[in-house]
Specification:
The chain crosses the membrane at residues 86-113. The chain is mainly alpha-helical. The chain has helices at residues 2-36, 41-70, 79-82, 84-122. The chain has two domains: 1-37; 39-123.
Length: 123
């Protein structure tokens, strides 16, 4: 029995060792990817923050515009007086505008980050 238990343990140890080797090679590959990534943390923040902030500003400006054109006050209490159609129309238009602004500003921020990377690489 001892020989079979030792064989099973050594087989298990070999399997665990090979799996740890696989994990180690994957970690090394991921480390190389991170080291070779030309984007800095600031670049990544720009690519996320610019579209988010621009969509937020666009939606707030649209809300102000909507409230002025429909005669609503600044409070959201008047939503019940608008009716379901106007509420759905506002939600759809606001979402479409925010999405478009976010998409275009995302493209713009990616272009800006690429420009910054080119500038850094030529130094």
């Amino acid at each position: 029995m001892k020989d079979s238990e030792n064989t099973e343990l050594s087989d298990l140890a070999d399997k665990v060792g090979s799996q740890l080797g696989t994990i180690d090679s994957k970690v090394n590959d991921m480390r190389k990817q991170v080291e070779n990534d030309p984007e800095t943390v600031g670049d990544k923040l720009l690519k996320v923050a610019i579209p988010a902030v621009s969509a937020l500003i666009a939606s707030q400006l649209f809300k102000i515009f909507w409230n002025k054109t429909t005669g609503n006050s600044k409070d959201d209490v008047d939503d019940s007086q608008q009716g379901i159609f106007m509420t759905i129309l506002f939600a759809g238009l606001s979402a479409a505008l925010s999405s478009a602004v976010s998409q275009f500003s995302g493209i713009g921020s990616s272009t800006y980050v690429k420009h910054r990377q080119k500038k850094r690489s030529t130094r």
